[in-house]
Design goal:
By secondary structure, this protein is of the alpha+beta class. It is built from 23 helices and 44 strands. It has a 7-stranded mixed beta sheet, with helices on both faces.
Length: 854
């Protein structure tokens, strides 16, 4: 909300010499947020000038410019007693008084004025149009002051900034959702009076303190129908309508109205529209003007029906929702003729718009339910000035007085005649009384407030207070719909008594308990992967439904059961990811498109797995703490969000380089083995042994995909090379590899902190063994058998070679393992190591049918 200081001064007596910063400070003192101090953006010498002569000079480009001499006053004239200025406008003549920006001035947009040679002359300044000064949209014609300011005496050399109000400051404040009454000069004036501690009875002049004449009879017919209230609230509980006939459609908007609209950030349009906007800014009550001649019958306020549409004033055709509250008209007794005029409280329609030919005007001032207007404004993405006020709550008691103000302005400046009849239908609910103990504010804020001070403050903001011993009964004013409970009254007491009076007491910081085991494990995983060359990234968890098709996820796969957001940031990505690869691959694609093809990125984050049929969480009230059953239902409605870790590798895993002996070493491309090794790195960082075995799982290549499982058989995730079709659909480099693991499953395998066995100081004994098995036998199965059979002396076993060929026979393969043995209390003999190796081979032979290769 922007507040011109001169306008504010008409509602409240400003402190002497108060500037914009002083007014803003006073408003901040009572809880409003300052957004800035604004001026018209015009600085430097801008003065009144009288045109002494002008000569039209045709140019080669077909234009005709005027070479003029202008008297800008003795203090600004040049040696010849005037200034020569080139001007392209033609709407002025000799003797006219104009606005001249002299060299050194700066106009809105940072346009500096200097003496410049143009069209064969040195133009020593600029004769200004309304648009160039930020006063309107008229750019073709310059300002002729006798027309722009009729009846105002001006002389050459006079300061035009002061004359046109361009030097005035405007204070902008941010209006929070609970302070809707501050969306008006009326409300800001109250808050300024509170902030400066001046008695309202002496300084406050209410803009709606007008006498509404008694109607001679019922006015334009209006019927309120709301068969689908939102959250039990009737959409419209008061509707006031007045008719003004014979308005001059060519009557200009008075300058004080146009100036204040511009200072408030609104564009003047026409007299009828500008009057409604002016009254809205002054009182906080939005009004709407209809062309009476374009209405077909009685006005009906109702909810939208299926299939109804409306072209709003911004020229957009909108499909209406059944919850939208509408202003319609229809021929009495014929509902089939019903026609939508506007979305109530949001924006009017083009069918009843006031035009340049409108002479008879119907003025509407109504009170609409906050939730209904807020939902319609967001649904149609129409944050209009009216909607901003209605959704925060307006004063139902001033509808008739606000309309009366608009009627008076139209009659005064447009020459119209108001009907003696009037419409005022509906009965808004009266504010509910609130009971509060006088000690309650002290218990909440921690500051002692005397009972008389509490009563005085609540009375100052407009409440009616009844004292009964230590109990207060408070009836809030009609313009404060936010005051519905005791704590709201306490907030008013605290802010008007002064937030600075509340002592700052820092609570003692409790001793830290350190990181949890889960937090330590997560950090260990991230550190281990980064040490291995990965770069940790963070991607948005929102994805499109097409990502599942791109990854070739089967139709019945649970991963397709994604949670859809009710209000997504983008309609193209309305789903929560069910896999980290859903969003991580988009990060890789974006990097690759920018020339980064050698990538190893990793992400730790949550995925969302909704339960089918779980339903939405219920909305609980705030009047009391939820019970255990209610909390249990809330927890049950929240979908599972396990923690995953995923990585993608593309291009070259290790870049080409030079060895110390001078021989070049070629780059190593990333492969499925790197993805599997990264998965092993994750498990090792947590301290969990995993088993790797061949598997088929989208979006991995069926022949190059590994299932990662715990020793107990729980699937942790998958790793390997992505399927070529998925790579193409996701726009990734060929042979891209990836892994994804469920960290929650891994962390569940970590028990209590285990005691670390002391390290043996004795040397290790290494034994190699090559076993021939069927080609279909997983190496992990053979490795597990070796580990089980070797006994407690085995320290490590790993596969270092795989051979297939004629020497081992068709359909067979040779797996070479290195076994490392060590005893904690002695040096092993060769016989002990060989015996342990033989025992391991025996178990492998028994379980897998392996034979030792010689």
């Amino acid at each position: 909300m922007r507040i011109p200081l001169s306008w504010l001064a008409e509602h409240v007596d400003l402190e002497p010499e108060a500037a914009g910063v002083d007014v803003a400070a006073s408003l901040v003192r009572v809880g409003l947020e300052e957004e800035g101090i604004h001026t018209a953006g015009v600085t430097g010498p801008v003065v009144v000038g009288r045109v002494l002569d002008l000569v039209g000079e045709p140019q080669k480009n077909g234009k005709t410019i005027n070479w003029t001499h202008v008297d800008v006053g003795p203090q600004h004239n040049g040696p010849e007693g005037n200034r020569g200025i080139v001007c392209g406008a033609h709407n002025f003549v000799e003797g006219d008084l104009v606005v001249v920006a002299l060299p050194g001035a700066e106009l809105p947009g940072g346009f500096g004025i200097a003496a410049r040679k143009t069209y064969g002359h040195v133009s020593d300044g600029m004769i200004c149009s309304a648009k160039e000064l930020g006063l309107g949209e008229d750019h073709d014609g310059i300002i002729v002051l006798t027309q722009f300011l009729p009846g105002v005496d001006v002389t050459p050399g006079q300061d035009a900034l002061e004359l046109l109000g361009l030097a005035e400051e405007t204070v902008e404040v941010n209006v929070t959702p609970d302070r809707g009454y501050c969306f008006s000069l009326r409300g800001i004036a109250r808050e300024y009076a509170h902030g400066t501690r001046r008695p309202l009875a002496e300084v406050f002049r209410d803009p709606v303190d007008v006498q509404v004449p008694l109607a001679s009879g019922p006015g334009y017919p209006v019927r309120l129908e709301d068969d689908a209230p939102v959250r039990g609230a009737v959409g419209c509980d008061r509707f006031v309508a007045r008719v003004v006939r014979g308005v001059d459609p060519s009557a200009p908007t008075p300058r004080f109205v146009a100036d204040r609209l511009r200072q408030a950030g609104m564009r003047p349009i026409s007299l009828a529209v500008d009057v409604t906007n002016y009254v809205m800014l002054a009182t906080g009550q939005p009004l709407h003007a209809y062309d009476l001649g374009r209405l077909q019958g009685e006005v009906v306020v109702r909810r939208a029906r299926a299939g109804e549409e409306l072209t709003t004033l911004d020229g957009v055709e909108r499909t209406l929702h059944p919850e939208d509250l509408l202003i319609t008209d229809e021929v009495p007794g014929d509902p089939a003729t019903s026609r939508v005029l506007s979305i109530a409280g949001v924006m009017g329609g083009a069918s009843s718009e006031v035009s340049a030919a409108t002479t008879d005007v119907l003025l509407e001032g109504a009170h609409f339910a906050q939730v209904s207007i807020a939902r319609s404004a967001r649904r149609h993405r129409l944050p209009s000035e009216a909607a901003k006020r209605f959704e925060r709550g307006t004063d139902p008691a001033i509808c008739d007085r606000a309309v009366e103000l608009a009627v008076r302005l139209l009659v005064e400046h447009g020459g119209g005649t108001p009907d003696t009849t009037a419409t005022d239908v509906g009965e808004p609910a009266a504010p509910q009384a609130i009971t509060m103990d006088v000690g309650f504010p002290e218990r909440v804020v921690g500051v002692r407030y005397e009972a008389d001070d509490i009563v005085s403050i609540l009375t100052e903001i407009g409440c009616e207070v009844t004292v009964d011993g230590s109990s207060l009964t408070v009836v809030p004013p009609t313009w404060r719909p936010d005051l519905v409970g005791r704590v709201h009254l306490v907030e008013e007491v605290a802010r008007l008594a002064g937030y600075d009076a509340i002592p700052s007491v820092l609570p003692p910081a409790p001793a830290g308990s350190g990181l949890t085991s889960s937090q330590r494990a997560r950090r260990s995983v991230a550190r281990a992967l980064v040490d291995d060359g990965f770069v940790e990234v963070l991607s948005y968890p929102f994805v499109a439904a097409s990502v599942f098709d791109a990854q070739q996820v089967p139709a019945n796969d649970p991963r397709r059961n994604a949670l859809r957001l009710a209000n997504p940031l983008s309609e193209q990505q309305p789903l929560m990811r069910t896999s980290l690869l859903d969003s991580l691959t988009e990060t890789v694609r974006r990097n690759v498109s920018r020339g980064l093809r050698d990538l190893a990125v990793v992400e730790l984050g949550s995925v969302t797995h909704p339960q089918p049929g779980a339903g939405a969480a219920e909305v609980l009230g705030v009047e009391q703490r939820p019970g255990e059953e209610e909390l249990a239902r809330l927890r049950a409605a929240v979908p599972a969000q396990p923690l995953h870790v995923a990585g993608v590798l593309t291009g070259t895993r290790r870049r080409p380089g030079a060895l110390g002996d001078g021989f070049a070493r070629g780059g190593e491309p990333a492969s499925w083995a790197d993805a599997v090794e990264a998965a092993r790195t994750v498990a090792a960082a947590i301290g969990v042994d995993v088993v790797v075995e061949a598997a088929e799982h989208a979006p991995w290549h069926p022949g190059r995909c590994a299932r990662i499982a715990t020793a107990q058989g729980h699937t942790v995730g998958y790793a390997g090379e992505l399927h070529p079709s998925a790579v193409a659909a996701l726009e990734l480099p060929a042979r891209a590899a990836a892994f994804e693991l469920d960290l929650d499953v891994l962390l569940a395998q970590v028990g209590a902190a285990a005691q670390v066995d002391p390290l043996s100081g004795y040397p290790a004994a290494t034994q190699d063994v090559a076993l021939v098995v069927d080609a279909a036998t997983p190496a992990a199965q053979v490795q597990g058998a070796l580990r089980d059979g070797a006994g407690p002396l085995l320290e490590d076993v790993h596969l270092f070679d795989v051979y297939t060929g004629a020497q081992v026979g068709e359909g067979r393969k040779s797996l070479a393992f290195a076994l490392r043995f060590r005893a904690p209390d002695r040096t092993l003999t060769a016989e002990e190591a060989s015996a342990a190796r033989d025992a391991a081979v025996a178990v492998a032979t028994e379980r897998t049918g392996a034979s030792q290769r010689v």
